[in-house]
Model the fold of this input.
Amino acid sequence: MHFTEDIWSGPAPFSVRRDRISAPGDPEDQFDRLVLVHPGACVVLAVDDAERALVLQQYRHPAQTRFVELPAGLLDVEDEDPLVAAQRELREEAQLHADTWRHLVTMYPSPGLSSERIEIYQATDLSHWDRGDFELVREEADMTTAWVPLDDLVASVLAGTATDGPLGLAVMVYALRAREPNTLSRSPR
Done:
């Protein structure tokens, strides 16, 4: 038996539901799980010709911390292509355009609670781009950007001073793939 009840939905980009499920291999053992239903997100590791990554510094209220992050955002419309969303986020948050895109990795940051799936991309062959009519508001209005050598980002993740999960995974996957011959070529996905 499977039962689903919508618990909450509102102006936030997610909702909450309760599912009644059965234990694997034992249909009589039923229990409830809360699920945060999330539209998904994208993250962009923008790398320039000097092997530096564009990072953002942004305050995140739930953790009450100003994080070093990568450009990122929600999939804004149902069934939005994550690559299209990544291109939009790079333009809006970093005022950059990339001629070359590569999918780095897919992650579920908290699969015990949330359906959120994050697609992480590498963007190269960068140029300045206008953000169009997008306006930075609220926390984004205080966001700053910087170019950081990728080796420094890896060291910060390993030292525990860069603690944003998607940033950590993105730079580690990039660093590991850089050790493999021909894996970080500038060809599209």
Notes: The domain at 41-178 is CATH 3.90.79.10 (Nucleoside Triphosphate Pyrophosphohydrolase).
